[in-house]
Amino acid sequence: MTDLTVSLPPALRSWVDTRLAERGYADAGEYLRDLVRRDLAEASVDRRWLKAMVDEGLASGIVEGDPEDVLDDIIAEDPDLRG
Asked: pTM here?
């Protein structure tokens, strides 16, 4: 392992101390390692989701027409997209 020194303003240090007490981390390093691991896992899920969306888009084929008209049609089909 390598060392990493991190400087935090008092408010963030207080937050870290609170999390250590609430979650039972041994020290700030253990907390930081857990945060980094969870961030890596989340990034992996994000990449898989994005790849799935790209694959779905590619599989759906090419839509002919003016892009603005296509977007207008999509928005017209989903009221939540209006506004």
From this structure: 0.58
